[in-house]
Amino acid sequence: MSPILRMENLTVKLGGRVIIENINLRINRQEIVAIVGPNGGGKTTLIKTALGLITPTEGTVEILGTTPEKAIKTGKIGYLPQKTDIPRNFPFSVLDVVLLGLVNSGLSRKEKLEKAKKYLSYVGMGGLEDHPYGRLSGGQQQRVSIARVLVSDPEIIFLDEPSTGIDVVAQESFYDFLKKLRDEKGITVVMVSHDIGVVGKFVDKVAGLNRFLHYYGHPRDFFQRHVLEKLYGTDVELIIHSPECVACEHFHSDFRK
Amino acid sequence: MAELLEIPFVQNALIGGVILAVLLSVLSLFIYLKNWSFINVGISHAAFGGLAVGFYLGLSPTVFGIIFAVATGLLIGYISRKGDIHEDISIGILFSMSMAFGVIVITLSPNYNTDLFTFLFGNILTISKGDIILLGGFSVFALGFIAAFFNKIMYCCYNEEVAYVSGINTPFYYYSLITIIAIATVLSVKLVGVILASAMMILPAAMANQIFWHYRKILVFSVFFSILMVVAGIFISFQYDLPSGATIVLLYSALFSISVLTKKLIGKAG
Ligand SMILES: Nc1ncnc2c1ncn2[C@@H]1O[C@H](COP(=O)(O)OP(=O)(O)O)[C@@H](O)[C@H]1O
Ligand SMILES: [Mg+2]
Fold this sequence. Notes:
Radius of gyration of chain A: 19 Å
Shape of chain A: globular
Mean pLDDT of chain A: 87
Low-confidence stretches of chain A: 246-257
Number of strands of chain B: 0
Strand content of chain A: 15-25%
Number of helices of chain A: 10
Number of helices of chain B: 12
Oligomer: heterodimer
Largest interface: A-B, 27 and 21 residues
Structural class of chain B: mainly alpha
Shape of chain B: globular
Bound molecules: adenosine-5'-diphosphate, magnesium ion
């Protein structure tokens, strides 16, 4: 089967600086892929390039079998950007935000409302339809945005740090939720994450990015000192011993070997 | 007051004023959501330059005003989208240049005193039937465009990159809105002048959002209070022989201050 996303010899320069370099990546359908790496490593840039929001300096991107410019017109791509601060008096209701995902759907007003409400319950936000979006907590806003992403029935979704604002306990169920999406709806998930420990337990593939794609493959082989050192440099100790590294059991045992 | 209503130019002023109040307050929602007040101020200064050139050449100031305003608006829009130069600096340079140019051109022409003042701050007495037809026609077109594509435009206001990935032609809506704002600015010249037009496009939605959070209510409230302020401003300016544009904008600002203060007080109490 041909990959749903393919990057070949991809290099992106921004403001005269090389941000990501010579990336070769293939993501298959119905995979959950986590892009991890240090801050400023180019994770957001990689996602934006896949979506056609950034034009590569060199190399090619193929998504859904075509160029990003053509692929977005199909409406089959979902995108949750990295969280920005939303003012408390932001003039959209929770329902408005989800309805945005149906702007191009061609459904009637009534069908749109039904579908939007269904997806709000799906992410556990049912009953809050008329609530001001700006007054929700960070985690609740992320969930509403995920309903906005899913309501358009995408084939592939890009989530840039979706767990920001979701506490560590809720994160586990969030990843179970992503697995459910993959298994029930056949969605491909590409997500950026900071918490490498948690991610290691749940995803099908890990992409370790710090300007170069230092690692791409099964999470099992990701947790090796030489891989992590390449990715995080001298910060590696910090990462391993951070409180976020919840799933570091298998990780530490690898180290002892 | 009743006898004022029978004077034809007062009637024209009121009709023109109400149309403009509706148009500018609807636009204010998008300017507010997109944080475009700086683009808007830039456009109004450039419009002044264009009006001056048209006036000096003895050709239509409106046409030249529109050309300058649209060109500047699109250029500012382009620069801030590409984000290469810091946008505030580039916009500042652009509109100061156009404004300074306009002042020099106007100074070179005879009779410059009155015309400079009119372009900057408006003179409601000079609104003609022709002006009203032009303004009315454009408003129908502009509001029709916004109504037809409302959901897509709102998606762009929510988050342009997300809208783009959903297949919305975001550059089209972005540049269309800027063009509409630029033309509306020039068509405001007789009522409030190009400089104060930007206040009528910034204050209504900002004020409404102090009181209401939902955009539908913001829209309704903005339109309602703009009409009220413009009609009141026109009557007050006739009654006390004050400049109409400045009177209207003072009323807007007063109401804005009251709404902010009220919100602060209520916020403290509750
Ligand atoms: N438009 C831009 N112009 C110049 N540099 C940029 C631009 N956008 C991002 N960068 C730089 O690219 C690097 C990678 O950014 P990003 O992709 O956001 O990293 P990450 O998401 O991994 O934290 C950062 O150093 C950032 O400063
Ligand atoms: Mg990022």
